Amino acid sequence: MFRNDQTNAESNFWISYADLMAGLLFVFILLIGAIVSKSVILKADLHTKEETLSKLSETLDVKEYTLTKLNKSLAESQALLAEKERLLTLRNARIAEDTIKLTEAEKQLQLQNARIAKDQLRLAENERIFKLQISEIKKLNKQLLEANAKQDMLSNKIVIVQNLLDENKNALDKTTKSLEEYEGKVVILSNELNEMKNSVKIKDEKLLTLLNAIDERKTKYDELVAKLQAQKAKIKSLTGIKLKVVAALKEALGDKIDIDKKTGSLRLASNILFGSGEATLKPEAKVELKKAFEEYIGTLVTNPSIKSHLDKIIIEGHTDSVGSYIYNLNLSQKRALAVMEYLLTLEFTKKHNIQPLMIASGRAYQDAIMVDGVEDKEASRRIEIKFRLKNEDAMHEIEKVLDAQ
Predict the structure, then answer these.
(1) Tell me, what's the pLDDT at 64?
(2) pLDDT over 70 for what percent of the chain?
(3) Cβ(241)–Cβ(305) under 8 Å?
(4) Residue range 365-380: average pLDDT?
(5) b or e along 27-41 (b: 16 or more beta carbons within 10 Å of the residue's beta carbon)?
(6) Looking at residue 208, what is its pLDDT?
(7) What residue ranges define each of the domains in the chain, with the CATH number in brackets?
(8) Are the C-beta atoms of residues 120 and 228 closer than 8 Å to each other?
(9) 90-107: string of b/e by CB count within 10 Å (b at 16+)?
(10) Residue pair 368/302 in contact by the 8 Å Cβ criterion
């Protein structure tokens, strides 16, 4: 019985051991399963992250490509901006040069105005002195009238005394003493009268001297007025040079070339010279441009009375108001420069040494042609060749001042 109990105890031990080992194996299997599951989950998560990373990499490549294009576009924009700044700098330099010339003309005008003002002050001073001298003459005339009145009064008294003497001859002896006293008074009065006559004579001499001085000053005043009139006529003749040049152009060219009646500028339509939006001269337009330029400028440079007054020959480009101002300014400048470059290649230009006189300028649509308040776009698109005379602006200002006076 004891042996059976021992056998049962061993059997229970091994059963418990087997259960324990089975439990441990189950736990190990669960642990392996958990590790495998975790590994699968991590691998799936890693695969997802790799796909996300791949997509991010592709997105980054796209953004880098876009950034490269933007950098290239920015570089082109910066180059264009630098070119515009260079053109603007050139234009500002030309404006500064024109400003300096205008300042010099204004200085000359100010000097001329100062001289005229000085002459006017002298004239006013002469008029004031003249008025003072006239006032002194009036005072002297008044004193002379008073002296004459006193003289007449004394003469009347003498006549009265003589009448009394004639009437009182019989009483002469009785009144001898009184007569002597009276004769003394008459002598005194005669002396006073003589002194008064001498004074009047001196005043007459002074009055004559004063009148001579007034005549002399009046002569100088007339000479000054004549001189001012001569200067005014001379300045008027100078300011009329532009009209003479325009008249000479009309007479020489007749109906061959259409020029502006007021300014004398030559206008050429842009659509004849250039294609739409282009700044390259059409080959077929060069012949007409050469002919018009040589006839127009030839009239100026072959006339000695005109050439000596020439200051600049200006090539101006003009556009209509379609598009931005910067675009039109750039286009008008390029067209004016293209025309100038072609004209400088002509043998006519070299022969008459016209290059130092020529300048090119773009005006965009600042001088658009208006008809009844509406822009004529076709007429506004043009090239103008015009001339400027020496001191032309100053002469216009002086003419305005003279006309105002």
Answers:
(1) 80
(2) 81
(3) no
(4) 93
(5) eeeeeeeeeeeeeee
(6) 75
(7) 117-239 (1.10.287), 242-404 (3.30.1330.60)
(8) no
(9) eeeeeeeeeeeeeeebee
(10) no
